[in-house]
Design a protein that fits this description.
The complex is a heterodimer of chains A (138) and B (136). Chain A has 138 residues and is an alpha/beta fold. Chain A folds into two domains: 33 residues, no CATH class; 88 residues, Nucleotidyltransferase, domain 5. Chain A is built from four helices and eight strands. Chain B is an alpha/beta fold and 136 residues long. Helices cover 37% and strands 24% of the residues of chain B. Chain B contains four helices and six strands, in the order ααββββαβαβ. Chain B has a domain of 76 residues: Nucleotidyltransferase, domain 5, CATH 3.30.420.270. In chain B, a hairpin with a 2-residue loop joins β3 and β4. Chain B has a five-stranded mixed β-sheet with strand order 4-3-2-5-6. Classes of the chains: A alpha/beta (138), B alpha/beta (136). At the A-B interface, α2, β1, β2, β6 and α4 of A face α2, β1, α4 and β6 of B. β7 of chain A pairs antiparallel with β1 of chain B.
Chain lengths: 138, 136
């Protein structure tokens, strides 16, 4: 009998969970701060549509070239005034990152002439992996 | 009786045990709803510069020409954009070494070019050659 009474007054054992939200918030804030979303404004383009599109394998090894319908060319944050400049810009980027993929965000009303000229420049810069940005077809 | 009841209640506390769950739910909600827009598009590998032209058996080449007006010519036949898919697929069944040579005019719309390239990808053509546009 005496033994049973003693058992009733047992200690409450528990892991303190009051600080758990703080830990998770810290994790959340850490990832929010350390995540870098590199974005360039580029040019305003309306992309063409395609069905067999693939995701770019990475976002890190990508340089984006915008071409709008007025044949303006922008590479990441640099406005390309003369096409020959593009070769040096891309060449330097490729030297810094050999896995570079060139993403072409071209307006659907652009002419093939300028695209071809850009491709020739890219070939000369040895940047051979390209990706024509497109929107999925509805 | 009243005295006894008060003693039973013990310390008053807001239960915090479920707070991590709430925070986790918030975290998961934002993880799921956040869409970092990924670039999607058609992949292509350009030929290296100064490559010597390789002689290819003319049997293994299909010429695909697109003119300024967006009209498509496959091996001397005018076709519409939607048919490129099936024509090339048939040709690939006959000859799996087939290279599709796409040639555009300088004034061809980029949109048409992408549509044709998309059709070629859909037909499963992996050997695509981009020829320099004609005229200036």
């Amino acid at each position: 009998m005496a033994f049973k009474i003693e058992k009733k007054t047992k200690l409450k054992i528990g892991i303190p969970t009051a600080s758990l939200p703080d830990i998770i918030f810290q994790l959340l804030i850490f990832f929010m701060v350390s995540t870098v979303l590199r974005e360039f404004t580029g040019l305003k383009v309306s992309l063409p549509e395609a069905s067999k599109i693939e995701k770019l394998p990475t976002k890190r090894h990508v340089t984006t070239i915008w071409v709008d319908r007025f044949n303006n060319i922008v590479d990441d944050d640099v406005t390309v005034k003369q096409l020959t400049e593009l070769r040096t810009i891309v060449y330097n980027k490729l030297a810094a990152d050999p896995q570079l993929i060139v993403s072409l965000r071209v307006d659907k009303d652009a002419d093939m002439g300028i695209i071809s000229d850009i491709q020739q420049e890219l070939r000369k810069a040895n940047a051979l992996r390209i990706n024509y940005s497109a929107l999925p077809t509805h | 009786m009243a005295l006894k009841r008060r003693r039973d209640r013990g310390e008053l506390e807001i239960p915090t045990a479920s707070l991590p769950d709430i925070v986790f739910q918030l975290l998961i909600f934002f993880l799921v709803t956040t869409t970092i827009d990924v670039d999607k598009g058609l992949d292509l590998v350009l030929p290296p510069p100064d490559t010597q032209e390789i002689k290819i058996n003319p049997k293994n080449i299909t010429n695909l020409l697109i003119n300024d007006a967006g009209q498509i010519l496959i091996d001397e036949e005018v076709v519409s954009v939607g048919d490129v898919d099936n024509i090339i697929r048939d040709k690939l069944l006959e000859n799996d070494k087939l290279i599709v040579s796409v040639k555009t005019a300088r004034k061809t719309k980029y949109d048409t070019y992408i549509k044709v390239l998309d059709q070629l990808k859909r037909a499963g053509a992996t050997r695509i050659s981009i020829a320099e546009p004609e005229g200036s």
